[in-house]
Amino acid sequence: MDFFRKAAPAAKPVVEPVKQGVEAFFQGMVAKQGRVGRSWTASELRIKSFEDLHKLWFVLVRERDQLVAAKIWAKKSNLQIGELRSRMQKVKKSMARLRLVLHERKVAFADAKAAQQSTGIAAALSEPKSHVALNR
Fold first, then answer.
1. Can you list the alpha helix ranges (DSSP code H) found in 1-136?
2. Which residues, including other chains, have CB under 8 Å from residue 86's CB and lie 6 or more apart?
3. Contact between 64 and 50 (Cβ < 8 Å)
4. Tens digit of pLDDT for each residue in 10-20?
5. φ and ψ of 41, to 5 deg
6. Phi, psi of 122, rounded to the nearest 5 degrees
7. pTM score, two decimals?
8. Which of 99, 8, 9 has the alpha carbon at shortest distance from 53?
9. How many CA atoms lie within 13 Å of 85's alpha carbon, on the beta-carbon side?
């Protein structure tokens, strides 16, 4: 009878160790052999929040560093590096556009601050209303 037969021991789940440090860095190089996307446009970056731009900057830095490491590895191994050039170009364009968007925001903020100070609105807006009423 199958009812009394002992059950086979359950297979142990296969858990891959989490790669950290250098292993995680090189894992990304091997995994990205497929289709590559396009660079970010300035108009796309302008609608992102500062936090999103901050995160994207470090993603781009990591990608750039991985591509530089892959380029060095390819040269030592006498391999073709044609695709790496186009990917590096896309990363560099995205980084330059991100810097442009941050510069535009910095200039706009400085202009708004100067306009606010020149019209005298800054003093009225920065003080609480109850304090303004007591000074009269």
1. 22-31, 42-46, 50-76, 82-119, 121-126, 129-135
2. 36
3. no
4. 555 554 555 56
5. -90, 155
6. -60, -45
7. 0.62
8. 99
9. 4
